[in-house]
Amino acid sequence: MTSPYDPIEPRNFGANQRSRPKGGWRAPHRHALSTRNARNLLIKNRGAPAKVSAQNQLYKKYRYLIENLAVAVGISDIDGNVVEANKNMCRLTGYPREELLKTNLAATYVDPQDRLRLIKLVKENGEVNNFEARLKNKRGKPYWASLSIKKIKLNGKDYVLTCKTDVTAIKRLEDEHKKNTKELEEFHEAVVGRELKMKELEEEINRLKGMLGKKK
Predict the structure, then answer these.
(1) Distance CA 197, CA 89 (A)
(2) Which residues pair with residue 84 across a beta bridge?
(3) What is the mean pLDDT of the chain?
(4) Phi first, then psi: what are they for 75, rounded to 5°?
(5) Which of 68, 61, 54, 86 is nearest to 161 (CA)?
(6) Would you say residue 44 lies in a domain?
(7) Which residues are CB-contacts of 140 (< 8 A; sequence separation ≥ 6)?
(8) Are residues 156 and 85 in the same domain?
(9) Which residue has the higher pLDDT, 141 or 47?
(10) From CA 89, how far away is CA 138, in angstroms rounded?
């Protein structure tokens, strides 16, 4: 088989046939560009390095803002596959960033029904604020979180932006408050009940005294 780089003999071109050059005829390189094509390619891609540089700068600013937010922030698709997370999200969940990006959020809920209800609300309203759910970290330890979620678009695709706050301490205080309130209510009922019984007893004693006085 003849290689495109091997010398080849010219065909009969009639009166305008040229003499065979020294070393023979060679086919042009398959990747060679004409001067016009090369110029057009340069014009087409003019400004491309500057555009890439601007995109890189924008990404760095975006990463800086995300990383320095005081709350845990993450981005996932609607199916729960994580595509971005800041250090606070990694700290709260207990996952290293590389591992979290391979995790589906459904695995982080103590009750899977909580996530189904949450996603239903997001689809219906576009966003949800202060949704409390019991989650679990990488080690399986449960914690309470307040979730604020909003649907966003990136490169034409639907994603979910999540801001998460650990409210375990607050929920613990609320539980203690409920417990103390219940104990106070029970104590109050017991005291009031005792006072009523004492009053009833006193009335009964007075009634008996009255009956004895009449007999005399």
Answers:
(1) 58
(2) 75
(3) 77
(4) -125, 135
(5) 86
(6) yes
(7) none
(8) yes
(9) 141
(10) 12
Cα torsion 111, 112, 113, 114: sign = positive
Q: What distance, in Å, lies between the first and last C-alpha atoms of the chain?
A: 144
Residue 16 lies in a domain: no
> Which has more pLDDT, 21 or 67?
67
The CB density around residue 76, as the number of other CB atoms within 10 Å, is 21
Within a domain: 40? yes
Q: Which two tokens stand for residue 159?
A: 């994603």
Residue 214, token pair as written in the block: 């009449």
pLDDT value for 192: 65
User: Position 180: which residue type?
Assistant: N
Q: Which residues form the domain of 48?
A: 36-68
**3-class DSSP state for residue 131?**
strand
Q: Which residues of 152-177 are buried (b: 16+ CB within 10 A; e: fewer)?
A: eeeeeeebbbbbbbbbeeebeeeeee
- The pair of structure tokens assigned to 211 is 């009956």
Residues for the chain: how many in total?
Answer: 216
Give the contacts of 80 (CB within 8 A, at least 6 positions apart). 104, 105, 106, 115
Please state whether beta strands 142-154 and 72-77 pair in parallel, antiparallel, or not at all (unpaired).
unpaired
This prediction's pTM: 0.57
5 has a pLDDT exceeding 50: no
Residue 132 has pLDDT above 60, yes or no: yes
How many domains, the chain? Answer: 2
